[in-house]
Amino acid sequence: MLRSAYHESFEIGKMQGNTWFILDESVAHAIDHLAEGFKDWEYLRHHRELNCFYECALKIPLIKSCAKALRRKHVLIDNDCYRNFIDCHHEVSAQLSEFQKQPDIQDN
């Protein structure tokens, strides 16, 4: 359901292609490691952290402007990832709640 929500958001233009790829990878990773629980947030947070590359690159005058541009792009993609992560999780949670409220066919 979550992958479908991400894909739908991508199709209607709520997220960038890079964002969709990252979020889809977070679901794939969570499914691959399901024995540990569904930890898509941990995967996303760990893989999107600003690393020391940016901090080091910003100190080198020759590549400082390039590093600033890359860091800005990284931050914008992060913002898109986190916003869509939250929106899609809320959407899926609402769908699951509605599904749980429906009477079971076997109960009739």
Q: Which secondary structure elements does this structure contain, and how are they paired or packed?
A:
Elements: H1 2-11, H2 17-32, H3 40-48, H4 52-57, H5 64-101
Helix pairs in contact: 1-2, 1-5, 2-3, 2-5
Overall description:
By secondary structure, this protein is mainly α. It has 5 helices and no strands. The model has no long low-confidence stretch (mean pLDDT 86). The longest helix has 38 residues.
**Mean pLDDT across residues:** 86
Give the CA-based shape.
elongated
Helix content class? over 70%
Number of helical segments with 4 or more residues: 5
Largest sheet, strands/sense/barrel: none
> Helix/strand-derived class?
mainly alpha
Strand content: under 5%
Order of helices and strands: HHHHH
End-to-end separation: 27 Å
Unreliable spans are none
Instruction: Round the Cα radius of gyration to an integer and report it.
Output: 18 Å
Question: What's the count of strands?
Answer: 0
